[in-house]
Amino acid sequence: xxxxxxxxxxxxxxxxxxxxxxxxxxxxxxxxxxxxxxxxxxxxxxxxxxxxxxxxxxxxxxxxxxxxxxxxxxxxxxxxxxxxxxxxxxxxxxxxxxxxxxxxxxxxxxxxxxxxxxxxxxxxxxxxxxxxxxxxxxxxxxxxxxxxxxxxxxxxxxxxxxxxxxxx
Length: 168
Prior knowledge:
Layout lengths: L14 E2 L3 E2 L13 H19 L3 H7 L1 E12 L8 E11 L3 E10 L5 E13 L4 E2 L4 H15 L17
Antiparallel strand pairs: 1-4, 2-4, 3-6, 4-5, 5-6, 6-7
């Protein structure tokens, strides 16, 4: 699907990435996926939904716009190992003219259990100035359509969690 296409697949539920495979060099000395590569998997899924929203690689090339991640909170819930197929579910939680709030779940593609979650705030960048700027109106319309659809979904478990020691 081109960057300028009208979003469709992510409107019926959370956006589901393509099934991905863990690469052997990503396995650490503990025998599971190294923490850094969870972010690689999340990022690959975000690239897929961004393309459907019209803000993927072609958007950068043709319109000199992109997004940067401003904040990220990852929770590691269950180990993923070499050979496990994975898929990422992405919810668009909130948006304004310059920001996108997303929540992702890295799931075992065959069994469905959640391995990790990532909650993110991304900002739209005018790459000619490398400054935060509003999304163009057509992109805002794509975002609004998906945001309305995702607002009707149950909120994912873990949304809005903060890091902190348990209170005694």
